[in-house]
Amino acid sequence: MTTDTTEPSAAERSAALDALRGDRRRYGDTLFKGTATASGTGILLILAAVATFLTVLSFPAITSPAADLPYGAFWSWVFPYAAGTIWAAGLAMLFAVPVALGVALFITHYAPRRLAVSLGYIIDLLAAVPSVVFGLWGINVLAPMLQPAYVWLNTNFGDVWGLSWLFGGTVSGTGRTILTVALVLAVMVLPIITAVSREVFLQTPRLHEEASLALGATRWEMIRQAVLPFGTPGIVSACMLGLGRALGETMAVAMVLSPGNGFHTLLLTSSNPNSIAANIALQFPEAYGLARNQLIASGLVLFLITLIVNMGARAIVARRSEFSGAN
C-alpha cells in the first residue's frame, strides 16, 4: 500500500487562495448589503411608526366638537402656532443663509489654509452647543443688548408706510421678541448650513475653477460661474437641514420668547406669536385628556410642515440632478 505524498503545485495553492479570498469578499458584500438594506428599511419603519403614533393620538382632537376641546376648535387654535413657527424659522433663515454661505466661501476660497482649518473647527464646535445654552445667551445677553436698537427701529420706522407691519406697535421693554428668537435660531442653524456648504464647495471640480480663471474671470466671477452652480443642490440640502432645525427648535424659543395669543407680523412687541414646539413644551406637562391629544395633534401639524418642506427641497434638487461636475 502506497501513500500519495505529492505536494500541491504553486498554481494549485494560488488557485485555492484566490477561491478563499473570493469567498471572503462575497461574504463581506453580502453582509454590507444586508446591513445597508436593514438600515434603510429601519428608517422607513421608524418614520411610519412616528406618523402612526401621531395620527392615532391626534384623531380624538381633530374629530371632537370644539366645545369639548380645552383649547377650543382645533384648526383655529393651531393656525397661529403653525404660522408663528414658519415666521420665526423663515426670519432665521433670512439672517443665517447669506452669512453661512459667505463663511463657507471664505473658508474654501479666500482664507489662508491655517486660518481656514481653525475657522472650520470653530464652526463645527458651534454646532455642538446645546440649545439651552443658546436660550440662556439669548435671554441674558442678546435681548437686553438689542432692546435699544428695537426702540430706535420702532421710533424711526414704526410709522413708515410699508414697514409699520414689521416695526410698528408698542416696543418691548425686555427685548424678548420674535426678532430676538429669529436671531438666536439663526446662530443655531449657522454652523449646520456652513459645514455642509463648505464640504459641497470643496467638491467643485478643480478643472472648472481653473478654466474660469484662465479665461480671465476674477475670483468672485469664478465662484459665480463654477462653484455656486455646481453646489446649488448641496446648498439647498444644507438650507433644508438648517430649516428643519429651526422649525423644530423648542428650548431656545420657549426660554427667549415672550408669547402672546394669535399671530401677527410685528417684530418688536412684547406679545409675540409662539411656535408649535415651544407651546407643546410649555403646555404638555400640565395637560391631560383631550388637551394632550390636542397638543399631540399640533405636533402632527409640525410633522407635516417639516415633511412638506423636505419634499419641496428634494424636488428642487431633483431638477438639477442632470448636472454633474464630472461632465
Task: Report what the structure shows.
One of its GO terms (molecular function) is phosphate transmembrane transporter activity. One of its GO terms (cellular component) is plasma membrane. With 327 residues, this protein is mainly alpha-helical. The protein has 11 helices and no strands. Helix 2 (74-110) crosses helix 6 (178-202) and helix 4 crosses helix 6.
Explain the layout of strands and helices.
Layout: H1 10-63, H2 74-110, H3 113-126, H4 131-157, H5 164-167, H6 178-202, H7 206-214, H8 219-248, H9 251-256, H10 276-283, H11 290-319
The CATH topology assignment is MetI-like fold
H and E order: HHHHHHHHHHH
Helical amount among residues, as a percent range?
A: over 70%
Write out the CATH superfamily name: MetI-like
Mean pLDDT over all positions: 86
Multimeric organization: single chain
CATH class: Mainly Alpha
Shape: globular
Q: Give the total of domains.
A: 1
Tell me the distance between the termini: 71 Å
Specify the number of helices.
Answer: 11
Class from secondary-structure proportions? mainly alpha
| Beta-strand proportion | under 5%
The beta-strand count equals 0
Family: Belongs to the binding-protein-dependent transport system permease family. CysTW subfamily.
Pfam families: BPD_transp_1
InterPro entries: MetI-like, MetI-like_sf, Phosphate_PstC, Phosphate_Transport_Permease
Organism: Tessaracoccus defluvii
